[in-house]
Amino acid sequence: MGRPSKALLDRERIGATALALVDEHGDFSVPQIARRLGVQTASVYHHVDGRTGIVELLRIQIASGIDLTALDLRPWDAALEAWARSYRAAFAAHPRAIPLLTTSQVVAPEVLAHYERAVALLGEAGFPPPTVMPLLTAFESLVLGSALDLAAPATVWDTDADTPLLAAALDAAGPARADTAFDLALGALLDRARTLLP
Fold first, then answer.
1. pLDDT score recorded for residue 1
2. Measured between alpha carbons, how far is 103 from 35 in angstroms, rounded to an integer?
3. Which of 50, 83, 121, 184 has the CB geometry, 3.0–4.6 Å to 70, for a possible disulfide?
4. Given CA atoms 63, 65, 71, 76 in this order, what sign does their dihedral have?
5. What Cα–Cα distance (Å) separates residue 16 from each residue in 10, 24, 106, 146, 160?
6. Residue 96 pLDDT > 90, yes or no?
């Protein structure tokens, strides 16, 4: 029997399969990935360095949805805002992956390139070096928290309880509460960032 014209297994297929499992169940296992791809578990290990390697493939898969060219915009605040919105959209599509990714070190060059360019952008804009990483961390916290908020149930709070003020506030916020909250927080963070410039 001849070899198949297309490889049955590669890193991209492993990453996509792991991401599908995480989207469905909130986690993955190597045997689950192997079963879904119709291969032996050992075959998966030939392509990745265990669970850690697969988590990094998840990161690459999701980061590929972030518009890196947003960081080419000028001025710096327009670039950072566009990047933050794209970053949020990419992670909002896969919110169950966020806990897996935020508890492991970023090592993928494709993903580190985003941070390298963001640091270069802020350096070029004149931000003092001690402010750069706290600023990027604040943006990342906002983006990932907002992506999780988008995945939350429509009614996070039980308004059947004796909380008429909360119920009225939720009604007044309307169905776009998460987007409005993100816009508010992003605007506030950009305003604060401007004060850090010399």
1. 47
2. 26
3. 83
4. negative
5. 10, 12, 18, 24, 41
6. yes
